[in-house]
Amino acid sequence: MTALEVQCISKRFGALKAVDAVTFTVHPGEIMGFIGPNGAGKTTTMRICSTLELPDQGDVLVDGISVIEEPRAARRRIGFMPDSYGAYANTSITDYLDFFARAYGLSGDLRRQQVARVIEFTSLGDLVEKEISSLSKGLKQRLCLAKTLLHDPAVMILDEPAAGLDPRARVELRELVKALAGLGKAILVSSHILTELAEMCTTVTVIERGTVRGTGSVAAIARGVTTKQIIFARALTGPERLERTLLELPHTSEARREREGVVFEYAGTQDDLAGLLAQLAAAGLGLVEFAPQQVDLEDVFLSLTEGKLQ
Ligand SMILES: Nc1ncnc2c1ncn2[C@@H]1O[C@H](COP(=O)(O)OP(=O)(O)OP(=O)(O)O)[C@@H](O)[C@H]1O
Ligand SMILES: [Mg+2]
Question: Could you tell me if the CB of 64 is within 6 A of ligand 1?
Answer without folding.
Answer: no
